[in-house]
Amino acid sequence: MSIYDIEVKTIQGETQTLASYKGKVLLIVNTATGCGFAPQFKGLQLLHDKYRDQGFAVLGFPCSQFANQEKEHDRDIVQACEINFGVNFPLFSRINVNGSDAHPLFQYLTNEARGVLGSKSIKWNFTKFLVDREGNVVKRYGSTEEPEKLEEPIKKLLAKV
């Protein structure tokens, strides 16, 4: 199974796989609009805007598993992201990223790129996974890693054609 076979639900409620992102460099992030790290939405959007024409996309997956910091309804999440942070990169329906009901995408990501001391679990909102054009999970970045600091690794992956 590859990352492109995994089914996801868009924030508009449509089920799809990640196949439409084949050949792109991806930054997959578990987000929360009420989190102290939410200002990272702006940095994520800047990266998305700057590199999307070169084959890059940020994919946001709202999650409320950490201190219940995400809105309950997808429409409210979209509104908060657009109004408060100017987000227009792809957002998906709210999911769980840890535990027995973790979404298959995050089961895959955490298995491919472990955290501190080999841990699979995600510690907090705004954990980021960098994926190359072939669908390989290249690196996992913690919540405190600012999106702007990921620009060089993104540029290196985009340069590989």
Automatic annotation (TrEMBL):
Gene3D superfamilies: Glutaredoxin. PROSITE patterns: GLUTATHIONE_PEROXID_1 (PS00460), GLUTATHIONE_PEROXID_3 (PS51355), THIOREDOXIN_2 (PS51352). Keywords: Oxidoreductase, Peroxidase. It comes from the Bacteria. GO terms for molecular function: peroxidase activity. The active site is at C35. GO terms for biological process: cellular response to oxidative stress. Residues 1-159 form the Thioredoxin domain. Belongs to the glutathione peroxidase family. This is Glutathione peroxidase. It comes from Paenibacillus nanensis.
